[in-house]
Specification:
The protein has helices at 3-37, 53-58, 70-81, 84-97, 99-104, 115-145, 150-163, 174-191, 195-205, 214-219, 229-251, 266-274, 298-313, 317-337, 350-361, 364-369, 371-395, and strands at 282-287, 290-293. The chain is mainly α. The protein has two domains: 3-362, no CATH class; 366-395. The longest helix is centred in the N-terminal third of the chain and has 35 residues, at 3-37. The chain is globular. Keywords: Membrane, Transmembrane, Transmembrane helix. This is EpsG family protein. It comes from Paraburkholderia caballeronis.
Amino acid sequence: MTEKNRNRVLSFCRFAIVYVMLFVCAGNITNSMLLKWGFRDDQKGDFAQSYSLVGMMNGDAPKPYVYRSSFPKAAKWLAEQLEPATRDRIFRSITRYDSLHHAYFAGVPDTYWTPTVAIAYHLTYVAIVLATLFALLFVYKLARMHGLSFGHSVGFLAAFSFVYPLTFQRGGYYYDFFEILGVLAACHCVLKRRMLACTLLIAVFSLNKETFFLVPLALLFLHEQDVALTKRVGWLALHLAICVLTRQFIMSGYASNAGDVVEFHALDNLKFWLNPASYLTFYNLIGKGVFTPSLENPLMLVPLTVFFRAAWRGTPTRYRRYFFAALVPVLPLFVLFGFEDEARNFSIVLPAIVLIALHGASRFDTIFCGRSGDVGGRQAVVARVQSVPEVTEAAN
């Protein structure tokens, strides 16, 4: 095989590995969350006016959840544009197997499982899977961009897909997947200096959730030093203006809906975090009977603290500023309006966490084994390898 053909084969192998890893990791994340929470269709009382996907796509869900109904409404609109014969044919195909219905949408009452609703549910599911795939792709791209080898980048992608589902242990919604894609994509565009693409992404994903305006505020601190302050402020002003318009759009027309603009949980949160037992909790998000620790459990908290403390030392200053710019406004919102340890509320901070983690990924062994322990381990391996010829010779 010529060198050129060999390089082509290796290039295809790298593509195939990343392709397979993306789908396996995306499947792990979406399946873990949806098997546990689905589309929140296990609502009691008036199902059509709950924050199930039916309530969302009809615009009848209570506030503030109804503000995040743009994507389900778009899915319903697309289903309604189909010809009745086509819609009925797709519905018959869906009901013939109904695998997704039984796995993820089982809580939907039969009276609401109409052709339009069924197609909208499946479109939303496809959108969630695609959002997760592209979010993971951006994680991989960030790893390669920051000098990680191919092997380290794939390993980092896998590690991310193992840890990220743990943020859904206390709750999860379809719009969390769209939000994480939006913040990762916007972060990637700023690092690549593709500000027009970043502006388009902010315009699209700010329709997903009313708090997305926090994203451009944090991105102000991610620009490189050679970008003029006037340009940074100019982009920020444009992005905030877009977010204000989209926020007004997605929050209008729901004055008569039940609920309030926000839900206060400050007292519940205080009780939770002051209770020592809260730090020893386990959940079963990954699978029935498979209990994984909460992020504040010492089994997670201690290794994460050690890792990020070491990674922080090698993190550039602008990434640190970006982290604090994303974290500071989210913290009070989490204390007042979040619920106990729902870590998914920190999705806006996640790109900054990924950037910090990348500066410790290549030193993972050193961080947890210590330099001397790592050298000792290599020496032991060398000693075992060197002893193999001697044993073989003695056997002969």
